[in-house]
Amino acid sequence: MDLYGKNDESIPQKVIIHYPGNKDKIYTKGHLKYSGYINYFSNILWIIAFAILARNGFAIIIPIFLFFTFYNAPKRDNYLKNKYGEGYEEYADKTNGLVLFIH
Questions:
Q1: Which residues in the chain come in under a pLDDT of 50?
Q2: 96 - beta bridge partners?
Q3: Domain boundaries, the chain
Q4: pLDDT digits over 61-83, tens only?
Q5: d(C-alpha 40, C-alpha 5), whole Å
């Protein structure tokens, strides 16, 4: 992962996703094969780390960050179910939820 929060797989992902033969297929490679919510998991980790390092009342805003982190999860699931149908349901059954390696 570089300083901007992108990992080395971001460019190949864009190439694979935008290839015409992959138009109606869900992308299940790279870090997405481990968890469907890998970005939410990383957000939780950095928020917890911030709270530990802050060690003061400012850490009270953590629930606000967590609210915005999880607010879009159901919308994302519904969007992917509508777009990919059974392919997304198979992917969701195979991958972990929020936390890595816990199904």
A1: 1-4
A2: 35
A3: 10-94
A4: 777 777 777 777 788 889 889 98
A5: 13
